[in-house]
């Protein structure tokens, strides 16, 4: 075969290889646009440039469009419910869900990534921010009781003690916070909107700081209000995590937290309590290195 023939063969193989690697990804997003959805969609496109990403915002895709999809990605609980109603075994990833919105038993085709921080990551963050940390406090309600064991395992893995209090409807929130903080060095906010919401936030923060204790978590929006620090995943972090997940030979059913994340802290809160001002970039680097170590 001459040089020209070899070049043509190589070009043909390259074209075939590029065609084989391209996937049709159906991205099912909520009907209402938000900056987060737009940012995630753009970031995913940047991470998966070789793929054909088709955004479905409202309604149900045509059967032919569903059948053409190699992967389906859903954003939010409503779109996950839609996906679960489809009689398809197409590999799928469900994103932007609270931990409580993820079914206990996932179909074989589905992998879920919670939008809430990884408990192990949060506990490690607390250890780095509070050098004398010994006991971690948790508040939970009936709706988040299923998450308690996961948090207890993360706390035990860091050689810490835990003290948790169940907040019941007929008991005052303040009393529950006082009980948990009297026996804990820090309050770790978990994914429980019955407790951590706008109505309760002032009570939680004032009660904590009156005892010279801090709240870590439960999410980035709480930082400006007075929480000390948290890990969280930006839209870019989430897109990178999805792209990494899709590099695997096959998508496994189960739940995992985003591989990529950031740290956000409130310097003013740290100063007011006499704590070192956190270096968010350095904290994220240290935590990431810990997760990558054997």
Please outline the helices and strands.
Blueprint: H1 3-21, E1 24-28, H2 35-47, E2 52-56, H3 63-68, E3 71-75, H4 77-84, E4 92-97, E5 110-114, H5 119-129, E6 135-140, H6 148-157, E7 161-166, H7 173-181, E8 186-188, H8 198-210, E9 215-216, H9 221-225, E10 229-232, H10 235-245, E11 254-255, E12 262-265, H11 267-272, H12 280-292
Parallel strand pairs: 1-2, 1-3, 3-4, 4-5, 5-11, 6-7, 6-8, 8-9
Antiparallel strand pairs: 10-12
Architecture overview:
The structure is a single chain. It contains 12 helices and 12 strands. The protein has 294 residues and is α/β, with parallel strands linked by helices. The protein has 2 domains: 114 residues, 3-Layer(aba) Sandwich (Rossmann fold); 145 residues, Rossmann fold (3-Layer(aba) Sandwich).
